[in-house]
Amino acid sequence: MNEDVSTVSPTLGFIIKTIDFQGYKLNIWDVGGQKTIRSYWRNYFEKTDALIWVVDATDRLRIGECKTELIELLLEERLSGASLLVFLNKTDVPGCMGDDEVQRELELDSISTHKWIIVRCSAITGDNLTEGLAWVVQDARDKLFLY
């Protein structure tokens, strides 16, 4: 958010950021998705309120792999209370997958253990990034008032 994106590349390893958003401090762990580091993902699950799953809307070839990894993650006990925000990235590219296609391919309707939402976005333009984080914050607020 408000960063130079001209040199952005996929995350290799992980990046930790804290951002102030709507009066809350959000600790964000950006963990890369390469196969070689997926076994380390479990090191980042403690006290997770939300899982933000970024899907490349232009990559139909790997959507099956994306689904398999997501389903496996959602079975993790330490993520049992976490909500799921699916950021559908690169939606500004013509011919990209839409919400319905991604919802179907990821089988999101079968997820009853986590509250979820799809938010179309563009990491390059910043479109809807704020809206996605607003949903995460509101969802966390709603959970606070349940206990």
From TrEMBL:
Pfam families: Arf
InterPro entries named among the record's database cross-references: ARL2/3, P-loop_NTPase, Small_GTPase_ARF/SAR
Keywords assigned: GTP-binding, Nucleotide-binding
Record carries keyword Nucleotide-binding: yes
Chain segments annotated as coiled-coil in the UniProt record: none
Name listed for the protein in its UniProt record: ADP-ribosylation factor-like protein 2
Source organism of this protein record: Lithohypha guttulata
